[in-house]
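Bench notes, afternoon.
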Amino acid sequence: MRAGKMAAAAVQLWGLLRPCRALLFLSQFYILSGGESTDIPPYVMKCPSNGLCSRLPADCIECKTNFSCVYGKPVTFDCTVKPSVTCVDQDFKPQKSFVLNMTCRFCWQLPEADYECSSSTSCMTVSCPRQRFAANCTVRDHVHCLGNRTFPKMLYCNWTGGYKWSTALALSITLGGFGADRFYLGQWREGLGKLFSFGGLGVWTLIDVLLIGVGYVGPADGSLYI
């Protein structure tokens, strides 16, 4: 008799669990099908939680800018934080809207310290006139400006392949007659010419000492000395 009651209770409990399992399955199916997204926006990773709203990176806020402001003059814009971003005011109270103080200027007019640019290793740094290359520049996160935060800019070639000016000059003075300086700089044709001509009977060696000393002769890959 007692065993029969326990069996009946188990059946009733199983009957109650079946709807719960069905509801759990439906809720999981709803989330996986896109009904409820749990993804965090990518810009949230750049936004410090509960920091001052006025110091948030530009990717964390949206501002009503006015391009008719006077260049170089202080200007204020009304801004709001983006969804999933939390910040506070000077009194540490949560807020969504605030006033941003900045200088009226476009992003491409910023000082060089306020943005980062791509580099190029395919242009000649030692040339006359100096060569330029087209770089893509991006404004730093905490710098606010008008217009596109990514912009093109022509920059002078300025990269190094690891060649030392002091080493090149020392080789030119001591072993320049054997073309060691030219071999070090990657100019193997000129190095062979100096080697088999004994440094142009000393004349070529003296000329190279002067040219390397003033920086006129550089690495064959077009880079700068370090």
